[in-house]
Amino acid sequence: MLTVHHLNNSRSQRILWLLEELGLPYEIKRYQRDAATMLAPKELKAIHPLGKSPLLTDDTANGVITIAESGAIVEYILDTYGNGRLAPPRGTPEFLRYRFWLHYAEGSLMPLLVMKLIVGVAGKKAPLLVRPVAKGFVGGINKAFLGPQLKLHLDYVESELARHSWFVGEEFTAADVQMSFPLEAARARAGSAGQSRIDAFLERIHARPAYRRALEKGGPYELMS
Q1: What would the pLDDT profile of 2-42 be if each residue is shown by its tens digit?
Q2: Please, what sign has the CA dihedral across residues 76, 111, 53, 189?
Q3: pTM of the complete model beyond 0.85
Q4: H helices of the chain, where?
């Protein structure tokens, strides 16, 4: 049996969505962020030393398998239970494109969004006396680095979505599931910069029945901005 160790308002939401798209049975074990720090609770470290979410455990005939990292979890689910669904055939140009987006989401786009979140929080929580300086520092980082880099990446994503309805082509794949979280985070943290195809992509995924079922099972889902 698959168990998703689900942290509220986190990347684990898309693992629930993937499982709903595949129609696979699974259980949810829920964890709540610390209200003050917004970090994951220490109980997750009992599952994996890093104590991060998502985590997937699979109770197999050979023992319990524990998998961390979104991309690795997606690949494990599809390789083990996908039966060829939601991924192109290996050895094809489409599979290379699929693998790129599967890892680009966390390897390139998401680090920028995490950095923007941390820099923004640091500016807001600076001591009162140095807050003007902190805000100026944050503004400088956003103007000199984060803003241009986010625009570069989001414009690239926008141009790629102009080629196809979905990230790999005209068929929905797990790459679209993987790309959902950074694009939702981008809209929460970077706003809209006239990228209408990204907006249309988000509208399409939010309308999918499996996405809605995952929201119902995962609980309230709101990204920090």
Answers
A1: 999 999 888 999 999 999 999 999 999 999 888 877 788 89
A2: negative
A3: yes
A4: 12-22, 70-81, 93-104, 110-125, 131-141, 147-161, 174-189, 196-206, 209-218
7-11, 133-137, 139-143: least confidently modelled range? 133-137
Q: At residue 39, what is the residue type?
A: L
**Cβ count within 10 A of residue 111:** 12
Model confidence over 85-131: pLDDT tens digits? 999 999 999 999 999 999 999 999 999 998 888 777 655 554 544 44
User: Tell me, what DSSP letter sits at residue 61?
Assistant: T
Helices (DSSP H) in 48-92: which residue ranges? 70-81
Structure token pair of residue 157: 């994503």
Beta-sheet strand order (sheet of 26-31): 26-31, 2-7, 55-60, 63-68
186: tokens are 């981008």
Domains located in the chain, CATH noted: 2-87+212-218 (3.40.30.10), 93-208 (1.20.1050.10)
